[in-house]
Design goal:
With 245 residues, the protein is an alpha+beta fold. It is built from six helices and twelve strands. Strands 1, 2, 3, 4, 5, 6, 9, 10, 11 and 12 form a ten-stranded mixed beta sheet that branches. Strands 7-8 form a two-stranded antiparallel sheet. The longest helix has 12 residues. The chain is globular. The two termini are 22 Å apart.
């Protein structure tokens, strides 16, 4: 079950052993330098924590998103994780607040590129609607999204494709709606949280499920909107996810 409280605006260790490190990234922090020149990125924080000259992120999440980011502890583990990532054997689940009322659940099969300017590749995401609420200026829904592939901004672009863009999304959403929700409810960020990662441990094959607490910069706006106990909604997600689409 997903914890539902986190006060810190800094990264936090979720799990650590001889093979891997799982970190909770706050919204607003980049995983690594590439398209920007931030003073500090998550890779820097991990290098200080581990006292190593290099960090090995297995994947990344958007700057505006919060949640679980997985690191390998050495090049050998990184190679194993990369192979698992390429075979889509690391299951990621996101929580997102979107505009409108999507279907109860569905599958989005829409090709998108892996990087800017690259060719469009097959891309697939599944979603489960957890809760819908009428707020100003538009009805919104909390959804769980499970990407089955790994493309650039996949969750955001797929939800936009079905006309349910994420709240707080400056690229794919509506600025006027984002600004009004920010003013009314204090949501000052992208409403996207990487809540869980599930995978087989590369050392012994045991089933791993790593959860990142939902941070206060999401829980407090959700409370003001009238979204009920997130723990109950996570239970709904767990039940619906076990049913076939």
């Amino acid at each position: 079950m997903l914890p539902v409280e986190e006060n810190s605006r800094s990264p936090a260790v979720l799990f650590r052993d001889e093979c891997l490190l799982a970190v909770s990234k706050p919204s607003g922090m980049l995983v690594h330098r590439g398209w920007a020149d931030d003073e500090e990125v998550l890779v820097d924080w991990v290098k200080r924590l581990t006292q190593q000259q290099k960090a090995y992120p297995v994947h990344r999440i958007d700057r505006g998103a919060s949640g679980v980011v997985l690191f390998a502890n050495d090049p050998q583990c990184a190679k194993i994780f990369q192979s698992m990532q390429n075979r889509f054997e690391i299951k990621k689940t996101y929580l997102a607040l979107v505009r409108g009322r999507p279907d109860d659940r569905g599958c989005i099969d829409h090709p998108i590129c892996r990087k800017p300017g690259g060719p469009k590749l097959p891309s697939r995401s599944e979603f489960i609607r957890l809760y819908t609420i009428d707020i100003q200026p538009r009805t919104c829904s909390l959804v769980a999204v499970i990407p089955k592939t790994g493309r650039l901004h996949q969750v955001r672009r797929h939800m936009k494709h079905i006309n349910h863009p994420l709240i707080g999304d400056a690229n794919y959403g509506k600025g006027a709606i984002n600004r009004q929700i920010r003013t009314c409810y204090g949501l000052h960020r992208l409403a996207l949280h990487a809540c869980t990662l599930a995978f087989a441990h590369p050392a012994d094959g045991r089933e791993m499920l790593i959860s990142a607490p939902l941070p206060k910069d999401l829980t407090e706006p959700f409370y003001r909107m009238g979204i009920p106990d997130i723990k109950k909604l996570i239970n709904i997600m767990d039940r619906r996810e076990s049913a076939p689409i």
